[in-house]
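Support request, please re-run this one:
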Amino acid sequence: MAPTIRPFHPVDLPGLYRLCLLTGDAGGDATRLYRNPDLLGHVYAGPYPVADPGLTWVLADEHGIGGYVVATADSMELGRWLDAHWWPTLRAQYPRVPDPGDGTQDHALIERIHAWTVTPEPYFAEFPAHLHIDLAPRLQGQGWGRRLIGTLADALRGRGVRGLHLGVSERNTGAIAFYERLGFETFSRHEWGRTLTVRL
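Re-run finished. Output below.
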């Protein structure tokens, strides 16, 4: 089966979670960092196709899900949805835990689940949409990332969305170069990395 981009189907969710973990350390495998392999997916992949499945696409081949893009057209609206429908269950399921001191990061991500708040950012007016995208190593460097983002951009334009933003770790230099080739520009820098924006 040749790689194919198609709309999200609920059976794809486990594949999204696996790929999120395998690329969750600044583009590298984060398996060693998490005792619970679902935590990264709960934060960075799972809520998007549940909140709005029309803005998620997967790249599938004979090995399964090899890539995906998940997005929201309105970051503030997604934040309200998360507060009402996503975080309460996760906060009940995963109480805060101390750092076990073994290098794993479950405690940090659980803290993020409990502390997560969405406040208006200066770029939300022009760039209200945001995305997360991941590609398995076997499908990188073949133009699939560009096609996934192009598919999303077309859908966002169809909804009248004017701009898109994303966050990227400063350590993920390959991703930053990729986004810059697509026309993204650095809007702001942070302790964890930078926010990139692009007009649609």
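The longest strand covers residues 64-72. Helices lie at 13-22, 39-44, 47-51, 75-93, 106-115, 144-158, 173-181.
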